Fold this sequence. Notes:
Blueprint: H1 6-14, E1 21-26, E2 32-38, H2 41-46, H3 56-64, E3 67-72, H4 76-90, E4 105-110, E5 118-122, E6 130-136, H5 139-153, H6 160-164, H7 171-174, H8 188-203, H9 206-222, H10 226-249, E7 255-263, E8 266-275, E9 278-285, H11 294-309, E10 316-319, H12 326-337, E11 342-344, H13 349-387, E12 393-402, E13 405-415, E14 418-419, E15 425-428, H14 437-449, E16 457-461, H15 464-477, E17 483-487, E18 498-501, E19 506-507, H16 514-548, H17 555-565, H18 568-573, H19 576-580, H20 587-598
Parallel strand pairs: 7-10, 10-11, 12-16, 16-17
Antiparallel strand pairs: 1-2, 1-3, 4-5, 4-6, 7-8, 8-9, 12-13, 13-14, 13-15, 17-18, 18-19
Helix pairs in contact: 5-10, 9-10, 11-12, 13-16, 14-15
Amino acid sequence: MNENARPHIEKILAHMTTLPGVYRMYGKDGELLYVGKAKNLKNRVSSYFVKTIDHPKTQALVARIYDIQTLIVRSETEALLLEQNLIKLHRPPYNIMLRDDKSYIYIFVSADKPYPRLASGRGKGKHQVGKFFGPYPSAYNARDTLVILQKLFNVRSCENSFFANRTRPCLQYQIKRCSAPCVGFISPEDYKEDVDNSIRFLRGDTRELNQELIAKMEAAAENLEFEKAVFYRDRMALLRDVQAQQAIYKVKGEADILAIASQAGVTCVQIMHVRNGKMLGGKGYFPDMLSDDLGQMLADFIANFYFQVADEIPTELIVNIEVADRKELEAALSQHFDKKIQIKSRVRETRAEWLELAEMNVQNAIQGRLANHFELNERFHQLEQVVGRPVDRIECFDISHTMGEDTVASCVVFDSGGARKRDYRQFSIHDITEGDDYAAMRQALTRRYKKAMLPDLLLIDGGKGQLHMAMEVMQELGLDAFMIGVSKGEGRRPGLETLHFTDGSKIQLPEDHKALHLIQQVRDEAHRFAITRHRAKRDKKRGSSVLEVIPGLGPKRRRDLLTHFGGIQGVLKASEKDLQLVPGLGSVMARMIYKTLHE
């Protein structure tokens, strides 16, 4: 286990639930490393941190873990399906067996024209081009679904080599599982309709499909085409038989499910996302709101989240309590996103199950936060014992740059409630000698405390030199700040830090001291915040400079290009045809961009 993360991980494990669910392991910069499922989350996750683990892959994973998040469900089956959805969505690097989706079965519709093939297989092989659906929990489930599709829509499943050399229909046609396109027994137009219906079935659009079959059956009966009417009737019966089974994998609908709860002064809102009928996980938020009315708090949270944070919104928001001013909130959201939004608190069947999951997770998140809250209070108490004075607010500064390039200073803020991210600040450092950390820190401190109030404790990431420089800044500003410099120990090993005080004294706390854990937590957060901003600033500068040399490519087109491909790396990987797909770019400009970047 990474020594920096040990106290945090041990605290998570101590208060982890024993219910079934999915766990997500994150790295130092918040990157998702691994997704797993468990019948008992506490037992399964704890097993990663026992000393008997000797598998190299697991050891490498554990060494990178800085945080663990869980989502609880009601059964192992739900845990398996949620795990698959998250792996498919995020593709974590340590889910090795799933990197090419080789562990799960997919059903795919090939891109062959004019008679696509419907088949199943393990993984999204590069040799196979088409639309993929899944993953399915087992080969049996996938094959069973494939047989149902063949009975319903008679789409071919044979290999292309077999299909191209047929002179008469095969056995699949005789048992009514294929319409024999190989010998022209069906037109490309009718076959395409069967393929489209197969895709709709796989996406869960069974209700509309059933209505269409009813219409076709009635039309055939009116035209006295009774054999065709019987054919459609049998399809409808089969479709009804499999609708319940289909719901195991997919349930039609898109929604965000929000559950709010409060306990012992801690309020949490859990959001769960359902897209295309699949649960894609969620996240817990702890809003800092001054209200005792949960309905009003949830309404305020919804407004803040969807107007300020979210890029899109589904047509349904399912909540566990009635929100304040629901109709006004619905109208504002509908106008902002240009579609009708409904907020529902009374739901049944599948939506009620989604809401139950959200409520289970919000209670679990609150219990975890309460445990963290008590731990954090104890850390602050221990720190006060060390420094001999009350400490409620801590601010810490850190500097980040690459060989002096794009220097950034960060200021993070902690109080007895934890990190106060809305009070964080970042400073772009200018007009200093490249790589001069002392000058960078001087500029950041001066700009911060010309206006801001002093905290109870100012942490300076550095030894005597940085602390003396900070003392000079405070003297110049006429401020009396309580400061501590934190220098790294031998080999920069965590736990060996030395604390330097303004009177020249210094101490080295024991490695397991809670006050030291608090200082490490604040310092590491300052480092993370600084380096994240620095990298974004550096990459944006480098990416923009590559595109700025291209004649005729103005700021708007550069922005559209970077947005379309998600950054400069996506642009560099794009082909000339891919570049032409950017709105407003055109073939001439796409060719010029490609040649400039590659030739």
